[in-house]
Amino acid sequence: MHRKRMTAITAAGVLALSVALTACGSNNGENENAPAANADKNKAQNTTGNSGSANTPAAVADGPLVKYDPPIEVSTVRKFNSGLKFLPGESWDNNIYTNELKSDLGIQMKNDWIVDDQQYPKKLNVSMVAGDLPDIFEVNLQQLQLLIEADQIADLTDVFDKYATDLSKKAIENGDGIARKAASVNGRLMAIPNGGGGRDDAQFIYVRADWLKKLNLQPPKTMDDVINIAKAFANDDPDGNGKKDTFGLSLDYNLFNGWSGLDGFFNGYHAYPFNPGGPNSTGLNLVFMDKGGQLDYADIQPEVKTALGKLQDLFKAGAINPEFGVDSGEKSAALATAGKVGMTYGAFWVPTWPINEMIAKDPKVDWEIYPLVSADDQPVKALSNNIVPASFTVVSKKSKHPEAAVKILNFYMEKNYGESRDEKYHSQKNGDETIGVFGLSPVSGGFSETNQDDYYSVQEALTAKDPSKLNPTAKAYYDSVTSYRAGDVKGWPMEKLFGGDNTSTYGILGQYKKNNAFMTNAFLGAPTETMVRNGPALRDLEVKTFTKIIMGEQPLDSFDQFVADWKKQGGDQIIQEVNDWYKEHK
Amino acid sequence: MLRRWWANDLPLHIMVWVGLVFVLIFAYGPMVGLVIAFQKFVPTKGLFGSDWVGLDNFHYILSLPDTRQVIYNTVFISIMKLAAGLVAPLLTALLLNEIRLKAFKRTVQTIVYLPHFLSWVILSGILLDVLSPNFGLLNDFIAWLGFDRVFFLGNDHWFPFVLVGTDVWKEFGFGTIVYLAALTGINPALYEAAVIDGAGRWKQTINVTLPGIVPIVVLLMTLSLGNILNAGFDQVFNLYSPSVYSSGDILDTYVYRLGLVNFDFGVATAVGLFKSAVSLVLISGSYMMAYRFANYRIF
Predict the structure, then answer these.
(1) Identical fold at A72-198+389-440 and A204-385+524-584?
(2) Distance CA A353, CA A505 (A)
(3) What is the pLDDT of residues B172-207, one digit of tens each?
(4) Where in the cell is it found (chain B) (predicted)?
(5) Residues with Cβ < 8 Å from B33, sequence gap 6 or more?
(6) In the predicted model, is pLDDT for residue A427 greater than 70?
(7) CATH of residue B110
């Protein structure tokens, strides 16, 4: 039963997104974050100028894409999500990747087992216990740590340097090398990071513009505006039904999330807490800030208290659903799509889920997107942690050909991003249906700026009214945007992602990037020992306190008690460990 | 003699052996895994390669600030469930037993039995809506009566009672059927004798019906005592939220959040072992009491 609510919001977001973003329909359910799923699985446009394998000097006899002769066998394990579909006649053992890896590289893939993505981590743990590891497999950060400690995976530094193509090397250096750093121990590359380097989790303000208009309000420019709008939405009957049944700010028990989250609200007060609630949260994704060379926990800063006070006011004014403390993400989404909520903070994918459902039903509904606003004259910074990859591909120490993983990565990158790129390695048509095949590759890579670059090329094409230069993925976005502008409401989500300059999420995200308006977790290491031990209990303490403060069941000053308790119950130890890491990695 | 054994007893022995082997493999085999409770279990090192830490996992659980509250919640919720779950079906069965109209009796029996088949996943969705203070049916009714709306699922005080109430509502039909079955087993001659002695309906119930089903009541109670530390993971997990952790969190949900989400198997196993040990003591104790006071015995 614990499968049920697991990453409910993000999963739903991913799902909606993958449907909306045409080609990317499968294989991203395993990602914790929708943006990561999207960012690393689309095609990059900015890869022209890469020479692929041709110029690599080492490529003479035993190069990045040279075929094994005689062929070798490489074992792996796979996971699938519920959206997985194959082309007719194809399977895990017989598809474009397995077939061409064999014919082009002489690599015969062997799937030891295949399970769904919810069971994958547990099944893999069992394999670890049994010492029965395949040659190549995917792990999460905790498993990576375990495997490194147990000395069971191969050091890839040398084989990567020797065999990786320029394209593969570029992909692994994503986000100023943070992806590579996350996969390394003492400078040795222990895994191939899957994704990372992106900024796609930064938040925006989503507001019902039709309600603004009805109440004669202006879009938010400061946090005071946000608060006034929220109160007006709750008290001035924006839906005109004569009942006081609307709320100003969407919120649910997760507190922090890509939908109905508070991340952006806190950012407006220069506070950067992040510790999602909900029965399935791990309590391991803590954010630390650099305060004069010392790391400190973001959630216990005084700015957090200020913002909590404002939320308490909003709650007292009836601007927040009094039931938010028991509502899951689906519940808060249902309330919003029922037309009861006028504003929310959220990530870029919110137009693809859940608010797109409203647009199709009621043309009068108008959700607009605004950049985060500040409470004072200091510019606002958006919290963004996506630069750290969530999953990795590792190679068993027992594997006879550790370089095979690098070669498969080369193959994937070349076919999807290189000079010989071909759409058939990304997705293929089966009748009306587009089936993503990119996920079938045993190793994959990508670039974090893919969506952003697609945005820029769509913009260019829109100005020039000429889509001929677009890559196939961007072309699909372009078509949706133009069809929306011609009156087809189905194109609305893409319009809100890639359409306008100040009215689309990627337009605004581009501005954030230009101004470097991000706050990033200063701690990029794996969860420390005390974090793993005490993190979940401390998360409970935090979520309980924050929820009760917002609901007014506890006074605002109980925040101080929370800070003291947090420190006492292992927090001081965590801060100590995090600082030790920081000194080592500065 | 031997031939008779060969013909009659051997097939029975063979049948028992099959069951015994299954029990050994699937019930006793996994008990080897209990050693995890005394280890800092690392999947890569395996069951026998992980470091021994003695009682560290138990100390860790007891050192957590909320543990005492969670144990209290667990016992409180399950004792209430035990009591309510014993009384409600018994009363229903006794009342239904008085009804002569067979069709009505059967209909009621079926209707109260139905919720038993719904999972908590589904029920939690329904209950969230029904109990909602703003939009819920029940609260609309409470408000119509002139009382304040109650935030059943978000209020520390109410939450445990909601758990008990909904659990009884879901399961009492099942118990009712068991009791009704037991009631049909009472010898009608006893009632006839009672009537001849001048007993009315009430006296018949007190002196014939109740003593007649005492063994089955004792049996069900003995069995449920073994589950006293299982306050119902499914139900709580699907209904609770951070705002009611302080009164609604039970051992299972607590350990799920603390241990299993983060792969801390040692802690989770330690709690499982602790629960099993307590349950063993309770069920042995209650069995002995049942033997002494109700002369109830299995063997």
Answers:
(1) yes
(2) 13
(3) 998 899 899 999 888 989 999 999 998 888 899 889
(4) Cell membrane
(5) B47, B269
(6) yes
(7) 1.10.3720.10
Q: What tens digit of pLDDT does each residue of A172-230 get?
A: 887 778 888 888 888 899 999 987 778 889 999 999 999 999 999 999 999 999 999 99
Provide, rounded to the nearest whole percent, the portion of chain B with pLDDT above 70: 98
Q: Across the interface, do B42 and A149 touch by the CB < 8 Å criterion?
A: yes
What per-residue confidence (pLDDT) applies to A514?
93
State the Cα–Cα distance between residues B111 and B113, nearest whole angstrom: 5
Between the two ends of chain A, the Cα-to-Cα distance in Å is: 43
- Which residue range is the domain that position B95 belongs to? 64-294
The alpha carbon of residue B249 is apart from the nearest alpha carbon of chain A, in Å, by 11
Residue A17 and residue A541: Cα distance in Å, rounded? 33
Q: Are residues A129 and B44, on separate chains, in Cβ contact within 8 Å? A: yes
d(CA A412, CA A429): 19
CA distance A101 to B57: 48
| Domain A204-385+524-584 = CATH 3.40.190.10 | yes
Average pLDDT over every residue of A124-128: 84
Write down the domain spans for chain A.
72-198+389-440, 204-385+524-584, 458-495
Could you tell me which residue, A2 or A350, shows the higher pLDDT? A350
Contacts of B122 in chain A (CB under 8 A): none
pTM of the complete model: 0.81
Mean pLDDT, chain A, integer: 85
Q: How far is A278 from chain B (nearest CA, A)?
A: 7
* A·B CB contacts under 8 A: 108
In A, which residues are within 8 Å of B243 by CB distance?
Answer: 253, 325-326, 544, 547-548, 551
Residue B262: alpha-carbon gap to chain centroid: 28
Q: Are A345 and A194 in contact (CB under 8 A)?
A: no
- What dotted CATH number matches A72-198+389-440? 3.40.190.10
Q: Give the total number of structural domains in chain B.
A: 1
Taking Cα atoms as reference points, which of A62, A403, A13 lies closest to residue A203?
A13
Cβ count within 10 A of residue B99: 11
- Residues of chain A with Cβ-Cβ distance to B256 below 8 Å are 2, 279
Query: pLDDT tens-digit profile of B130-155?
Result: 998 888 899 999 989 988 888 888 88
B15 found inside a domain: no
Q: How far is the C-alpha of A40 from the C-alpha of A388, rounded, in Å? A: 12
pLDDT, mean of residues A581-585: 87
User: Quick check: is B86 in a domain?
Assistant: yes
| A283 contacts in chain B (CB < 8 Å) | 262
Residue at B92 is within a domain: yes
* More confidently predicted of B44 and B98: B98
Neighbours of B59 (CB within 10 A): 11
Q: Is A149 close to B154, i.e. CB distance below 8 A? A: no
CB A521 within 8 A of CB A288: yes
Q: Could you give the ipTM of this predicted complex?
A: 0.82
Residue of B nearest to A565 (CA): B65
| Per-residue confidence band for A55, with pLDDT thresholds at 50, 70 and 90 | very low
Output the 3-class SS for A202-215: CCEEEEEHHHHHHC
Is the distance from CB of A67 to CB of A106 less than 8 angstroms? yes
| CB spacing of A150 vs B246 below 8 angstroms | no
Q: What are the DSSP E strand ranges found in A286-406?
A: 288-291, 294-297, 343-346, 367-370, 382-383, 391-395
